[in-house]
C-alpha cells in the first residue's frame, strides 16, 4: 500500500476477529512505532502485548479497578468489564515511561507515545489488519496500572485492539481540509 494513500484512508475497526497479527507482522508494526518523533531520543515508550489467556487476566484487572470505585457493581457490569479485552485477539498496552529531562517536559513524552500509537494503527492498516485505540472507563484507574505491573513513573495511554477486520470497513466521512486549516499571517 502506498504510504500517503494509507494515511488518508485508515479507519478504526471496532469489530475484530481471529487471527491476530503473527510474529512477523508484529515486528513490522513495532518497527513502525519506533520511528515516532521523539525529542532527545528518550524512547519514552513501552508496549505490552496481551493475547490468549492473558486477556482474561486483563479483564480481571479491569473488573477489580471498577469494583474499587463501585463495590456494589451488578454482576452483569462486572462480567462486562471482564469481557472487554476479549473484543480482539491481541491488545497492545501503550505505556509512557516519563523521564526527567531539562528540555523535554512530560507532555512531549506522552505525545511521542501517541505518535508511536498512530504509527501502530497505520502499520496495522497497511498490513490489512484491523485496529482500534481504546481507553474506556478504567484506563486511568491506579488499580489498572498496578494490575498491569506499571512502575510509578509509567502511565497507561490506552490499548490498541488488533485483529482481523470483522465486517466491511466503515465509510469515510468526507472532511474538507480547508475547514481546519488557515494561513496565519501575523
Ligand atoms: C486516546 C484515545 C482513546 C480512545 N478511546 C476510545 C474508547 O475507549 N472507545 C471508543 O469507542 N473509541 C475510542 N477512541 C476513538 C477510536 O479509537 C477511533 O479513533 C474513533 O472511533 C474514530 O474512528 P477512526 O479512527 O476510524 O476515525 C479513542 C481514541 C483515542 C485517540
From TrEMBL:
InterPro entries: NAD(P)H_nitroreductase, Nitroreductase, Nitroreductase-like, YdjA-like. Residues 1-15 have a biased composition (Polar residues). CDD domains: YdjA-like (cd02135). The keyword Flavoprotein applies. Residues 16-163 form the Nitroreductase domain. Its EC number is 1.-.-.-. Its cofactor is FMN. Residues 1-21 are annotated as: Disordered. It comes from the Bacteria. Keywords: Flavoprotein, FMN, NAD, NADP, Oxidoreductase. Belongs to the nitroreductase family. This is Putative NAD(P)H nitroreductase.
